[in-house]
Write a structure and sequence with these properties.
Length: 418
Amino acid sequence: MKDLFEEQFQKNLKDSAPLADKMRPEDFSDFFGQEELVGESSPLRRAIQNDSLTSVIFWGPPGSGKTTLARIIAKKTKAHFEKFSAVVAGINEVRKAIEKAKDRLRFKNQKTIIFIDEIHRFNKAQQDAFLPYVEDGTIILIGATTENPSFEVISPLLSRSAVYVLKPLSKDALKKILIRALTDKEKGLGKHNLKITDEALERLTGFADGDARVGLNGLEFAVNHILWEKKKIIEDKELAEILKEHALRYDKKGEEHYNLISAFIKSMRDSDPNGALYWLARMIESGEDPRFIARRMVVFSSEDIGNADPRAIQVATAVAHAVEYVGLPEAQINLAQGVTYLSTAPKSNASYKALLMAKEDAKKGSFGVPMHLRNAVTSLMKDIGYGKDYKYAHDEPDKKTDQKHFPQELGEKKYYNP
């Protein structure tokens, strides 16, 4: 009786699952996108089909196919497959799975694949726990992450794993995924016999922004609305009303945060106000803190413009003040003005380069300040030579002296080349 209840529960769970989960491919024939990674002749595809896979890290944005690939591996491989999410699973659960993997290898000669979704959520100590078992072959680890593994996965684990980068899905791949979901009578929405116009399909793929899950969720929401209206065609105008607003992919603490600010800074550095305005708009539309943008502009004004235009730092700090004083949405106008000024200003990193050179010399030792540069604030200090032979620049005809300003151990240096 318990089995019957469990069977019914699993059926109910499957029936109520979101469309994105129902349509998850179980074979490469239905896996669209990432052709470079899983094309028929690719090393990864061959390793999966030959059951010769070693530990891997899948790094890519949400909805790009990381978990789907892991599930295909689960179906294709002869190894036992254990799936965990780092969001809810504890390391003790994983350790138990590793102990079972040892027995499975010892008594059945069967390998175990342990899949950790969002592996970046595990801390250093938790990730350390995998090392000996990955190294000795007790388990094959598959980690999935949306964050740059260079920063989020410990180096020893990275060195023992192959890192595969998944890209946001192309529009062509998304269209194939959406059409499959709309026409599949068994798992998808095919039983409703609905059509979608080319314009609506184009809008839906744009809405997905490279994320299959977002696209499928949008399609499911649109279909529910169309069925309620008793219509048979999904049209662009109605779809626009249903979807309302495109939610841009952006994580203010993650990889995309740093990618966008990098593109923003480099566009200004290359004196391209149009590119800089685009990346500014992307960050604003995605909800970036305008104070963060303004702070980066203040740094940029000295690092990349410097004394080629001393007014740049005044403009940047004025923009930062305006952002604090005015706030969004109006402060985006102040940001735009600052961005166009900094982009079109002459560029010089001479001050920044000079500082870096000076810092390298500063690390060479705590050399004493030359006696003539020391301030004699007491008679004892004056008696032992503090300030002796110091030349006061204002007493010189051209307001400049030839006295030395470096420790004797360093000799004379030239850092600044305007």
